[in-house]
Amino acid sequence: MDKTSIIGIIIGFAAIGLGMFLKGITVESLLNPAAFLIIIFGTIASVLIAFPSRVIKNVPYLFKIIFTEKDQVDVKELIDQFTEWAEQTRREGLLSLEGQMAEVDDPFLNSGLQMAVDGQNPDFIRDVLMEKVAAMESRHEEGAKVFSQAGTYAPTLGVLGAVVGLIAALGSMDNMEVLGAAISAAFIATLLGIFTGYVLWHPFANKLKEKSKQEVKMKEIMVEGILSITAGESPAVIKDKLSSYLSSKDIEKMERKSEEQEGGNVAEETK
After folding, report:
1. Confidence at residue 266, expressed as pLDDT on a 0 to 100 scale
2. How far apart are CA 85 and CA 94, in angstroms?
3. Model's pTM, two decimal places?
4. What is the pLDDT of residue 48?
5. CA–CA dist 112, 223 (Å, integer)
6. CA 144 – CA 80 distance, rounded (Å)
7. Does residue 165 or residue 123 have the better pLDDT?
8. Where are the domains of the chain?
9. According to DSSP H, which parts of the chain are helical?
10. CA 226, 231, 236, 237 torsion: positive or negative?
11. Quick one: pLDDT at residue 93?
12. What is the CA radius of gyration of the chain?
């Protein structure tokens, strides 16, 4: 489960609720069926009109992505894996990787290794794999755009809801109590529109974009690793090249780990 999504939503609702309490506004004032109807169903209608059915069908899956953490290969472990494969191919040749492919769970990485083992041209391998990455990015962008557009529509629909409420309020000018309640209800629609747009839909879109960036980064590391092995580059060069994708903090951890391993090897040799 993606805890940051859950925690963020809880904090968002808590902030609004506490803010209303401190302002002396009761929770009952939010229970306005007309406002919910205009904002929620209006946003849904707008999104349905804006996107084709093939994109809308993926919305439940997009929610799953937002609220769950996908198991991904650790970048440092992936770099170590490519380093080991480079050492193996130098000793036994590229065809020796065929025996390792059964242990690879990632279909993208498996496909790239298969092309390398089959002796495909490096340019061909790069073109095919990067086409797959581009197609994946396009799918992810479409998904994020659904929520981004919802975040654009909701606040505007909130204004529409306020206008509708004010029209109703103007019909009760002779009764100040009814007028005050109607004006208050009118602005509930604006509140709901802004809240759902900027606390839910836009952040959801950004979450999907960030997760997409991480997945693309992993795929790019795989492409570079496969091509480097195909080109016969040394394990040290491959490790150094792929480490450029790491943050400075991760690089420090890798260097510390290497130093500890070297220290352990020296200690064993002196025994």
Report:
1. 47
2. 9
3. 0.81
4. 95
5. 7
6. 33
7. 123
8. 1-31, 32-254
9. 3-22, 33-36, 42-50, 53-56, 59-67, 75-92, 107-117, 122-170, 176-195, 202-230, 235-242, 248-270
10. negative
11. 85
12. 27
